[in-house]
Amino acid sequence: MNLTSLVRNWWMMAIRGVLAIAFGVSIVVWPSVTLSIVVLLFSVYAILDGAWTISAGTRTSTRAFDAWPLLLEGAVSVGLGLVALAWPFVPRQFVYVLAAWGLITGVLELVAAIRLPRSAAGHWLLGTAGVSSLFLAALALLLPHADDDFIMRVMAAYALVFGTVLLLAAIFFPGEALSRERTARPHGASL
Length: 191
Hints:
Layout: H1 3-8, H2 10-29, H3 35-60, H4 68-86, H5 91-114, H6 121-142, H7 148-184
Helix pairs in contact: 2-3, 2-7, 3-4, 4-5, 5-6, 6-7
């Protein structure tokens, strides 16, 4: 996976951002939402995001080894989304599924960010997405007995931050590629 392939498929990252934001907004605006409903919403979000991530991983590289962080992240999201879907009426145990999801996907997002050029803003934005996933996992593990309202607010905040960061990365990737192309072209060369 490289910057060029991500640039060509920036819109796939943008859709992941939109999915995350939609999940976060749905928690915030749903009147009298319960943790069971949030677990159901999360499972749908994780399955959709995971499937889309797998699709993005296969599209960004012709070699599976190059895109393994995205492919594995997508598989984990789909798998844990299915687990959450099977447990919608046991929301307290869902906190552990959420923590596992945040931990695994956060590490894989950091691996994907590390594989990008350090000078790219997308590198730092993807890294921020990974750190936000790890932060969600840490909160879920440190506060397993927190009240339902707090858990739902944390999930909504995470989804909004994560989605915004992915959207920003999707916006910056094409601009970075154009800037790199201009600096690589000899002075006075035409397009």
